[in-house]
Amino acid sequence: MALQSTNPTTTKAWSNIQAHFSEIKDVHLKELFKTNPKRAEELTVIWDDFYVDFSKNRITDKTLELLFELANELNLKDAISKYFEGDIINKSEGRAVLHTALRETKDAQVFVNGENVIPGVFQVKEKIKNFTDAVVSGSHKGFSGHQITDIVNIGIGGSDLGPAMVVDSLQFYKNHLNTHFVSNVDGDHYQEIVKNLNPETTLFVIVSKTFTTQETLSNAKSIREWFLQSQPKEAVANHFVAVSTNVESVKNFGIAESNIFPMKDWVGGRFSLWSAVGLSISLAIGYDNFESLLTGAHKMDVHFKTSDFEKNIPVISALLTIWYNNFFEAESEAVIPYTQYLNQFATYLQQGIMESNGKSVDRNGNEVNYQTGTLIWGEPGTNSQHAFFQLIHQGTKLIPTDFIGFVKSLHGNKDHHDKLMSNYFAQTEALMNGKTEAEVLEELADATNDQKQMLLPFKKFEGNKPTTSILIQQLTPESLGKLIAMYEHKIFVQGIIWNIFSYDQFGVELGKKLAKNILEDLHSTEIKNQHDSSTQNLINFYKNHN
Ligand code: F6P
């Protein structure tokens, strides 16, 4: 059954939220804390090893109540069931959206076109496990009999960002294998990576859901040519494996069927790290850790599916985006992890969030008359404090920010960790409180009156900047799985409320098609395709100076 399609702005809840917004939009967070001493407890959700404090958001009980009414009026509960049960909710591509099935338990049953997909999921997991064990233990050898030392993941978008982010984030858990990622069609990218590799000890994992992506196929071909410069053709079987739904094209590329790790079309590229796309993750941290990542995601799935909205982390988090995006007219959200390990987390989320919800047509095919997808960005703290935090504190834009941190560090240097976390807590406090005139004057106690007059406007600031504090016990494969799944479900809820299809990405296709035409023009003596004069001149200049 299809998802309901209702313009959210036509609901009763939306008008109520609008009226409520006019009443509380200028209320300061400090005031809200003053009037309710229990605010922090009431607006914190403690679940498993997650402590999520929503209290520094510009909301009251009434705000949440109205946002839940909106979710109910738009039948969110029913949509969640359809999502997990394999309904064709990706209607524009005619597919189910079932990355959640990839982390299900063995006894679960999830049907697509009448077939339970879980046994197939476990078959592929078994193949990932066996291959991982063989490579890690050294029983899978290179053609010349050497053990594998290096893994190169060749893929782009969802076939790169998820595995790259997870491997980087979980580097503490890594085994002896060195892992590299080649994504850009920029030839310098792959050449910088292969220049230091020994083909006899390297395994290449070509990852492409469609196996038609220009970047990945070009990189795979060039890397295979580089490999064959020093190795015999028969060696390809020991050194190249592939992950794809398009088994025929992979075979045509020259990879034996036994070296193909299949995936299904009901797994969206940007949600695919849980599938065989995660092979590089499994190789890098070992299969058991990969399994823990899946377990964490599954636990978050259960939390999301079964918790009341009042205690549901992804639901509250998504509704807050609606609140800021559609009522405060905030254009972006920042995600700031207080751990260097999550260096690539915001980049990873950019695809998940912006490729999914960057849509302007609703599920009925009509142009939307309200804002949808937010811009997402971020960098780890404390580095980002010394880069762009000034704008969040004193700029003209409202930027709701997620702070993510861990109670315990991994290497255990408590002195550093206390410093790191004191910065996390201090930033959320500073963003909320700002600096009053009295505080500035106290700070300027020794200054002359003229200096005080001059500096006061610059030094005082309003605060009232919303933040959500996510505090997790420790960064483990399981907790990372929960965190990623939390954002996946947040994306889903946003799409339901905005009445858009979150699981297609037609906008990306046009550029790919035009690039093909232009490549043709770059390769021929005259320009055959029609272009505007700007593009035409760029092509000519490039060709003439090449
Ligand atoms: O950028 C568009 C896109 O289709 C993404 O959605 C996808 O993750 C990426 O390209 C790579 O696609 P594939 O895995 O088919 O090579």
From TrEMBL:
The places in or outside the cell where this protein is found are: Cytoplasm
What does the record give as EC number?
5.3.1.9
Instruction: Note the PROSITE patterns from the entry.
Output: P_GLUCOSE_ISOMERASE_1, P_GLUCOSE_ISOMERASE_2, P_GLUCOSE_ISOMERASE_3
Chief localisation class: cytoplasm
Which pathway, metabolic or otherwise, does it act in? Answer: Carbohydrate degradation; glycolysis; D-glyceraldehyde 3-phosphate and glycerone phosphate from D-glucose: step 2/4; Carbohydrate biosynthesis; gluconeogenesis
Q: Which UniProt keywords apply?
A: Cytoplasm, Gluconeogenesis, Glycolysis, Isomerase
Q: Which Gene3D superfamilies match?
A: 1.10.1390.10, Glucose-6-phosphate isomerase like protein, domain 1
Q: Which residues form the active site?
A: E355 (proton donor), H386, K512
Q: Known catalysed reaction(s)?
A: alpha-D-glucose 6-phosphate = beta-D-fructose 6-phosphate
Q: A Gene Ontology MF term for this entry? A: glucose-6-phosphate isomerase activity
Which domain of life does this protein belong to? Bacteria
Q: Which family does it belong to?
A: Belongs to the GPI family.
Function statement: Catalyzes the reversible isomerization of glucose-6-phosphate to fructose-6-phosphate.
Looking up HAMAP family in the UniProt record yields: G6P_isomerase
Q: What is this protein called?
A: Glucose-6-phosphate isomerase
Natural source organism? Winogradskyella litorisediminis
Encoding gene (name): pgi
